[in-house]
Amino acid sequence: MRYRRHDEVTRTVEPYGLVLKNGVWYLVGKVGEDFRSYRADRVTSVEPTGDTFERDPAFDLPSFWAARAAEFVRQMLRETITIRLSPEGLRQLRFVAEAVAVRAATDAAKEPDPEGWVETQLPVESMDVAYSYVVRLGPDAEVLDPPDLRARVAAAAERMRNLYR
Known about the structure:
Order of helices and strands: EEEEEEHEHHEHEH
Strand content: 25-35%
Number of helices: 5
Shape: elongated
């Protein structure tokens, strides 16, 4: 198989399955001892080798894909914010942020204060994404750090306050 990345490479792949994710097809296959995934639209040519292979009976495509997707998201989460979340904010976080980030924030959460609020670290892709998360959580989230994000959210809250006067 010839495959286009930033360059074009040739791989001998033992095909194990196809996965459709957000309208994009991926080929999952074994190359040597490693399982890999390839965007199908980047495959430029395929030539059968005539060889056969023994399918690994322990391979589980859904589990492989879930692990690969989680690792991809983890690699995207390059920044961290410190927030306080109300009990409702902590419940709603799973509807706002990536599952990997929610697990990290839940694991990092300190003991609740007397009102039930917890302080935690939330991994995010960027400060723009962090801003959208916090705004969606509304009064159930408070940014503690970084200061620039806190100021941006405070300005948005002031604009909303003026809008609803």
